[in-house]
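Re: that chain you flagged

S.,

Sorry for the slow reply, it's been a week of failed gels. I finally had a moment to sit down with the sequence you sent. For the record, here it is as I used it:
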Amino acid sequence: MSKLLARAKVKYKNALNDYYQLSLDDAYVDDCCYNLQQCIEYCLKYIVELNGENYIENHDVRAQLNKLKELDVKLPFEEEIRKNASLLNSWEAESRYNDDFIALVEDINDIKELANRIIEYSDSLVQIK
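Prediction finished late last night. Pasting the structure tokens below so you have them in one place:
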């Protein structure tokens, strides 16, 4: 398994651990959002690499999506990721550095499901390649 995909899975497991403790402390919200963003970012980078290219070396989800578009790689949930790209990009830094960071539970739920789907999709690519 790719190191990127392995990291994505670890980030997702960490996010789930945080998710089940969201009501205990805002620190779990912060960490959950960061881990979900990282999970999706790592999966996108993995898919870029799987298609024979180097991923963009930044944390911008849109940059990875644009790279995949250049490679003519179609993701089944690309529109959903694009729709949430600004939110995800903000989670990468704000959840760690902004003491006033707030995330909506509905957004966390949606992104958690999206992250799960992208991991499952990435796993299916391992079996295909």
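What I noticed first: The chain is about 75% helix and 0% strand.

Talk soon,
D.
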